[in-house]
C-alpha cells in the first residue's frame, strides 16, 4: 500500500519512503526473475515471475515493457551485486587470496546462470552490447582490485591481468549449465589456486 498525502498536501517523509519501498519492490521482482531464469531459463512465463515476486503481471510489464527489458534489468542487477561483493569480501575474508577465491565463486555462479541471455537479446544487439560493456566496466576493476590486494600481500603472482583471468574463467564456464558431469567451479578453483606463490 502506498502512502497517501493528507488533504493539506503535506507528506512529511512519505515521498522518500515511497521511493525506498518502490526500490525494494523492484529488487524483489528482479531477484524473483533471476531465480526463475536460473530454474527455467529466460523464456520462463512472466506470470511465474509475478507469482514468485508477489505482484501482478501488469506490474512487471509496467516496469519492463518487453522481455528484453526485464532480462537486461535482471543481469544489470546481478552485475551490481557481484561488483559490490568484491570490497565486502576483501574486508571480511581471512586473506586477500580467500576474498579472490570467494569472489571468483560468485562470478562463476553469475556466468553459469546467465544461459540464454545472448539468444534472448539477439534481436536487440545494441542492448546486448551495452550490457556487455557495463559488465566489463563494473567487474574488471573489482577483479583487478582483488588481484592487486593478493599480489601486495605476497600471496599470488603479480603479473595476472584481470580481464585475461575473467575471460579464461568465462571460457571454463561454457556449457557448464547443460553438462551435469562438468563442474566449472572446481576447474576455476584450480586456476585460482594455481595463482598462489609456493
TrEMBL record:
<keyword id="KW-0805">Transcription regulation</keyword>
<dbReference type="InterPro" id="IPR001647">
    <property type="entry name" value="HTH_TetR"/>
</dbReference>
<keyword id="KW-0238">DNA-binding</keyword>
<feature type="domain" description="HTH tetR-type">
    <location>
        <begin position="23"/>
        <end position="82"/>
    </location>
</feature>
<dbReference type="InterPro" id="IPR050109">
    <property type="entry name" value="HTH-type_TetR-like_transc_reg"/>
</dbReference>
<dbReference type="InterPro" id="IPR036271">
    <property type="entry name" value="Tet_transcr_reg_TetR-rel_C_sf"/>
</dbReference>
<feature type="DNA-binding region" description="H-T-H motif">
    <location>
        <begin position="45"/>
        <end position="64"/>
    </location>
</feature>
<dbReference type="Pfam" id="PF21597">
    <property type="entry name" value="TetR_C_43"/>
</dbReference>
<dbReference type="Pfam" id="PF00440">
    <property type="entry name" value="TetR_N"/>
</dbReference>
<dbReference type="InterPro" id="IPR009057">
    <property type="entry name" value="Homeodomain-like_sf"/>
</dbReference>
<dbReference type="InterPro" id="IPR049445">
    <property type="entry name" value="TetR_SbtR-like_C"/>
</dbReference>
<feature type="region of interest" description="Disordered">
    <location>
        <begin position="1"/>
        <end position="23"/>
    </location>
</feature>
<protein>
    <submittedName>
        <fullName>TetR/AcrR family transcriptional regulator</fullName>
    </submittedName>
</protein>
<keyword id="KW-0804">Transcription</keyword>
Amino acid at each position: 500500500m502506498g502512502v497517501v498525502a493528507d488533504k493539506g498536501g503535506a507528506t512529511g517523509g512519505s515521498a522518500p519512503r515511497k521511493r525506498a519501498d518502490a526500490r525494494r519492490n523492484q529488487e524483489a521482482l528482479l531477484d524473483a526473475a533471476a531465480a526463475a531464469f536460473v530454474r527455467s531459463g529466460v523464456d520462463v512465463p512472466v506470470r511465474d515471475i509475478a507469482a514468485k515476486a508477489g505482484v501482478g503481471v501488469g506490474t512487471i510489464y509496467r516496469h519492463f515493457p518487453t522481455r528484453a527489458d526485464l532480462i537486461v534489468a535482471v543481469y544489470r542487477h546481478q552485475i551490481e551485486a557481484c561488483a559490490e561483493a568484491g570490497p565486502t569480501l576483501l574486508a571480511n575474508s581471512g586473506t586477500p587470496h580467500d576474498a579472490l577465491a570467494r569472489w571468483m565463486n560468485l562470478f562463476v555462479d553469475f556466468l553459469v546462470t546467465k544461459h540464454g541471455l545472448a539468444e534472448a537479446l539477439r534481436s536487440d544487439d545494441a542492448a546486448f552490447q551495452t550490457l556487455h560493456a557495463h559488465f566489463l566496466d563494473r567487474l574488471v576493476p573489482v577483479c583487478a582490485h582483488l588481484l592487486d590486494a593478493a599480489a601486495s600481500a605476497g600471496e599470488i603472482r603479480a603479473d595476472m591481468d584481470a580481464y585475461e583471468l575473467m575471460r579464461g574463467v568465462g571460457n571454463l564456464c561454457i556449457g557448464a549449465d547443460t553438462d551435469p558431469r562438468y563442474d566449472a567451479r572446481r576447474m576455476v578453483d584450480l586456476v585460482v589456486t594455481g595463482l598462489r606463490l609456493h
